[in-house]
Amino acid sequence: MTMNDLANAPVQHWDRLRAGDLVSVRTPRGVSFHAVLDEIDAERRFLWIRRRGCSERKLIHHLDGIRVLPLDGAAGFTRVKNQRKC
């Protein structure tokens, strides 16, 4: 992502998101998947997600162009044991 892309990226407001929430993630290339919100910083600019069934976390910044939306009624999603790496 270039500096120009960052300047034009829509700012996300993650005020409703909480650690443990199940979220829908959509990349700028159109790839969509569900994940668990593992951690979010106090300023709501950075978050860590774990893709369902995976052990690795991914860091997302609010200007990355990745859309992260809560899936209603899915808070407290139970993590899968023996998760695979993705």
Based on secondary structure, the structural category is mainly beta
Distance between the termini: 22 Å
- Round the mean pLDDT to the nearest integer and report it: 78
* Shape designation: globular
Estimated helix fraction? under 10%
Number of domains: 1
Got a strand count?
5
H/E topology pattern: HEEEEE
Strand content: 25-35%
Main sheet properties: 5 strands, antiparallel
Radius of gyration: 13 Å
Quickly name the level 1 CATH class: Mainly Beta
The helix count comes to 1
Question: Which topology does CATH recognise?
Answer: SH3 type barrels
Strand sequence of the main sheet, in spatial order?
4-3-2-1-5
Poorly predicted runs are 1-7, 74-83
CATH architecture: Roll
Care to describe what's here?
The chain has 86 residues and is mainly beta. The chain has a single domain (3-70), classed as SH3 type barrels, CATH 2.30.30. It is 7% helix and 34% strand. The chain has one helix and five strands. The protein has a five-stranded antiparallel sheet, with no helix packed on it.
Can you give keywords for this protein?
mainly beta, SH3 type barrels, 1 helix, 7% helix, disordered N terminus
Summarize the structure.
With 86 residues, the chain is mostly beta strands. It has one helix spanning 3-8, and strands spanning 22-26, 32-40, 46-51, 57-61, 67-70.
Q: Which secondary structure elements does this structure contain, and how are they paired or packed?
A:
Elements: H1 3-8, E1 22-26, E2 32-40, E3 46-51, E4 57-61, E5 67-70
Antiparallel strand pairs: 1-2, 1-5, 2-3, 3-4
